[in-house]
Amino acid sequence: MEVKIELLEKTLKILAQNPYKSYTLEELTMALIPDDPLNHNIASEREYQAQVLNTLIRLEDDGMIALNSNTDESTITLKGFSRAQLIIVS
Questions:
Q1: Which helix (H) or strand (E) segment is 31 a member of?
Q2: Residue 1 has what pLDDT?
Q3: pLDDT averaged over 10-residue windows placed end to end, the chain, 90 residues
Q4: What is the signed CA dihedral for 64, 85, 10, 6, rounded to 10 degrees?
Q5: What distance in Å separates the CA atoms of residue 19 and residue 17, rounded to the nearest whole number?
Q6: Interior CA angle at 88 toward 3 and 19, to 5°?
Q7: Which CATH architecture is the domain 5-89 placed in?
Q8: pLDDT computed for residue 70 by the predictor
Q9: CA distances, 85 to each of 44, 48, 53, 77, 80 (Å)
Q10: Taking the model in full, what pTM does it have?
Q11: Where on the phi/psi map is residue 63: left (φ > 0), alpha (ψ -120 to 50), or beta?
């Protein structure tokens, strides 16, 4: 599954807002899910959660976040925080 650049950037921005906090997959999914009441059902939520998980895996592979697979919690790294600051400025 291809990860969209927009989703990568939005995820980094959320994690950079509070770099000392760990975010669960559920918290990030709810923060990133499109606000579309017409398409709000369990199937679309699960699909979007899979997209968010793929995004987190990609960010971890790139060294931007630390992903704890036991708790599904993500924390931004210094590299990810630096990248997020560049995204916010541009």
A1: helix 25-32
A2: 55
A3: 85 95 94 71 84 95 96 96 89
A4: -90
A5: 6
A6: 80
A7: Orthogonal Bundle (1.10)
A8: 93
A9: 31, 25, 22, 12, 9
A10: 0.88
A11: left
> For residue 66, which of 22, 25, 29 has the smallest C-alpha distance?
22
Please name the residue that has the structure tokens 């918290």: 27
User: Max alpha carbon distance in the chain (Å)?
Assistant: 38
pLDDT recorded at residue 37: 59
Which residue in 3, 8, 9, 7 sits closest to 90, CA to CA? Answer: 9
Q: Where are the domains of the chain?
A: 5-89
Structure tokens at 81: 């925080």
In whole angstroms, how far apart are CA 66 and each of 21, 23, 29, 41, 63? 12, 11, 17, 30, 7
